[in-house]
């Protein structure tokens, strides 16, 4: 069965960086892209960007350009999302999601990132 | 930037029909997806391409999209359908989510 398993919770100080991983299994990894979506406490969903697991091409919304980097390792079927220069309002649960034809059909379990001094 | 607006909350009695709207400029010209999220859980896709149900999603979930409004309808609502629901569309190379609707089954 399709599974996306993410790395564990992180606590970071303002200005630091965080790198979250998402390991895929149960399907051909390079057939589907991976998007990252976050959810601040009590808030809605926000898209951080997308990566092609086939060739590593990325697409980031303007809001996160220059601050987020997504990478892929086909040898381990793992996708990474790094967010730099963290601020308190980056505190959120970060999800990876399998993407195809503009929909997200499988989601990881989420990774809580807390930014606090 | 593109915005999708949903009512903050919808209440429905068990067995009745719940309708959740999602409004955006010329939304009917885009494909809309809907996600269900229960407390402490990851979102689950319940409708894609306006009105298509993924495998395993009950028939009581249906969708429509026309003009500036997409609608998720839950017919014969059950207690297990109590959750937050988000619409989602693609615009100008960006995935956009709606503001979210909390469905309460009273």
Q: Can you characterise this structure?
A:
The complex is a heterodimer of chains A (117) and B (106). Chain A is an all-beta fold and 117 residues long. Chain A is built from no helices and eleven strands. The N and C termini of chain A lie far apart (40 Å). The mean pLDDT of chain A is 97. With 106 residues, chain B is mainly β. Helix content of chain B is 0%, strand content 46%. In chain B, strands 1, 3, 4, 7, 8 and 9 form a six-stranded mixed β-sheet that branches. In chain B, strands 2-6-5 form a three-stranded antiparallel β-sheet, with no helix packed on it. In chain B, strand 7 and strand 8 form a beta hairpin. The chains are: A mainly beta (117), B mainly beta (106). The A-B interface holds A 35, 37, 44-47, 50, 59, 61, 95, 97, 101-105, 107-110 and B 31, 33, 35, 42-45, 48-49, 54, 86, 88, 90, 93-100.
The total beta strand count of chain B reads 9
Number of helices of chain A: 0
* Net shape of chain A: globular
Helix content estimate of chain A? under 10%
Quaternary state of this entry equals heterodimer
Kindly report the average pLDDT value of chain A. 97
Q: What would you report as the Rg of chain A, rounded to the nearest angstrom?
A: 13 Å
Order of SSEs of chain A, N→C?
EEEEEEEEEEE
Give the N-terminus to C-terminus distance of chain B in angstroms.
36 Å
Please, how many helices of chain B?
0
- What summary fits the major beta sheet of chain B? 6 strands, mixed
The number of E-state strands of chain A comes to 11
Looking at the structure, what is the overall shape of chain B?
globular
Instruction: List the helices and strands of chain B in order.
Output: EEEEEEEEE
> What Rg of chain B do the Cα atoms give?
13 Å
Low-confidence stretches of chain B: none
Question: Structural class, from helix and strand content of chain A?
Answer: mainly beta
Which range best describes the helical content of chain B: under 10%, 10-25%, 25-40%, 40-55%, 55-70% or over 70%?
Answer: under 10%
What is the makeup of the main sheet of chain A?
Answer: 7 strands, mixed
